[in-house]
Amino acid sequence: MIDTIFALSSGRPPAGIAIIRISGPQAFDIHTRFCRLNALPEVRRATLVSVVDPVSGHLLDRALALIFAGPHSVTGEDMVEWHCHGGHAVVQAVLHALRNDSVARDADAGEFTRRAFENGRIDLNEAEGLADLLAAETETQRRAALAMADGHFSRRVEGWRSALLELSAQVEAVLDFSDEDDVAGEGMQDVIASGLAVLAQEARVHLALPSAERLRDGIRTVIAGPPNAGKSTLLNALAGREAAIVSDIAGTTRDRIEVPVSMGGISFLLTDTAGLRDDSTDSIEAIGMDRARSAVEQADIVLWLGPSQKCPRIDAVRIAAQCDRQRPEREEDYDLLLSAVTGEGMAGLVDRLVVMAQDIVQPEAEYALHQRQRDAVRVLREALDAALATADALLIAENLRIARGAMDRLTGRAGVEDMLDSLFGRFCIGK
After folding, report:
1. How far apart are CA 166 and CA 177, in angstroms?
2. Are 153 and 160 in contact (CB under 8 A)?
3. What is the DSSP string of 113-130?
4. Are 323 and 279 contained in the same domain?
C-alpha cells in the first residue's frame, strides 16, 4: 500500500503562515480525525478548522484547511493542506502529533513532486524546471525555470512526438505501397521528407539555446593581464567586496580566484588570474600563469588589462585600467578606460558585460535546456538527419523509432530511472 506522507511545505518558522501538507490514501481520514469532522468539507474551498491532537485531545491550532481529491491534486493523490500559524511551537506541535498518530510518515526530500511525476501530473522536464525555479537566484534563471516548469518545453516535445508518430504511420504506408505499383507512395515520400526537415530544423534551433548549466553557473568572465595591472582591484569592485588580495607586489595572485556575481539579472562567474609575464623564474608562479592562460581560452568573456597589442583573444574587451594613475598614449587602442578605485568607467563596463552576456544566454528564449535534455534533442536531430539522408523506407522507419525513443526519455516515459533519485533529492522536504 502507498504510504501517506506529511511535511511542512512552507518556509522555516517563524513565519506568518505555515503550510503543512498531507498526501496519500489516509489523508482524508487524518483530516477528519484531527479536525473532529463528521464529513469532509467541500473540496478546494478554504475552511476554518480546529486541529486537535487525537491522542491527548489538546487543541494544537486553529487553521484554514484545503482538501484536494485525487487525481486532481498536485500529487495526483488525496491531499490536505493545513494553513497554520507560523510559529515554531505551533509547527512542531502539529508535526509531533502527526508522528505520534503513526498513520502517516515524514516525507522524503522531493517526495511530493516525485509522486506528481509518478502519477502523471507533471513530466520530467516540468520537474526539472521546478527544481531550477526553487534554486533560481537571478531574473534570467527565474524566467527560464518558470517557463520549463509551466510545461512550455514539454508541449513542444509532445508536438514533436505527435509529428514523429504521424511520420512513422506515413512510412508504414510507403512500405505497404512498395509491394504495389502505386504512384501515391512516391508523393508520400516527399511529404515525409518535408516533415523530417521541419523537425530537424526545430531540433537544431533548440540545440542553439543557452544551457541551463550556463544560466546556473554564470557567464565565465576572466580578468587577465600582466602583474599589477589592477585585475584584483577590478574583481573586488565588480563583486562589491574584498574577494581578492590587492597588493603592489608583483605575483600576489598565483591561482585563479572565482567569485559569482549577478549583474542585470544575469549570473556571472568572475575569475581573477595570475599576472602574465615572460620573465618569471618562480615555478609556482609559472603554474599560476598556465592556469590563467587556460582560463582565458575557456572563458565566455575576457577582460584584458594589459597592452592592447598583447591581447590574447580578438574578442576580448581591452581595458585601460588604473586611468586614475596614468592614461594610455593611444586611447583609441582600448575599448574602455576605467578606474576601479575612483569608479570612472565602471558603469560602462557593467553595461557592456550585460549586453555581451545577453548575446550568450539569449534572454528572449523561453527556456534553457539541461545537458540531459540537450543530449536527447541531439539524438533526435541525428536520427532525423540520418532519415533525410536515405530513400530506404526501412532505414527511415528505424531512425524514426530512435527519434521516438529519445522523446520518451526526454519526457520521462522511459529510460530515466537511474537519475530520478538525484533529481528529486535536489528538492527540499515538503516539495
Report:
1. 17
2. no
3. HHHHHHTTSS-HHHHHHH
4. yes
Tally of structural domains, the chain: 3
CATH number at residue 156: 1.20.120.430
The model's pLDDT over 81-116, given as tens digits with 9 standing for 90+, comes to 999 999 999 999 999 999 999 999 999 988 999 999
CA distances from 425 to 49, 112, 125, 200, 242 (A): 33, 11, 16, 34, 34
| Closest C-alpha to 381, from 192, 208, 215, 139 | 208
Cα separation, 12 vs 178, whole angstroms: 67
Q: What is the CATH number of the domain that holds 13?
A: 3.30.1360.120
* Residue 430 in domain: no
Which residue reads 578605485 in cell numbers?
A: 341
Least confident of 64-73, 91-100, 360-369, 418-427: 418-427
> Is residue 135's pLDDT more than 80?
yes
Say yes or no: 219 and 355 in one domain. Answer: yes
Q: Is 283 helix (H, G, I), strand (E, B) or coil?
A: helix
Same domain, 228 and 343: yes
Average pLDDT, the chain: 86
User: Sign of torsion, CA 207 209 211 212?
Assistant: negative
Distance of CA 16 to the CA centre of its chain: 29
Pairing of strands 219-224, 301-304: parallel
Q: pLDDT, tens digit, for every residue of 145-189?
A: 999 999 999 999 999 999 998 888 888 877 776 555 554 556 678
359-378 pLDDT, tens per residue?
A: 888 766 788 899 999 999 99
CA separation, residue 282 to residues 251, 279, 286, 377 (Å) = 9, 9, 6, 48
Beta bridge pairs of residue 68:
79
Evaluate whether 3 touches 104 at the Cβ level (below 8 Å).
yes
Q: What is the per-residue pLDDT across 12-40, written as a single tens digit (0 to 9) for each?
A: 899 999 999 999 999 999 999 999 998 88
What angle (nearest 5°) sits at the alpha carbon of residue 191, between those of residues 189 and 192? Answer: 65
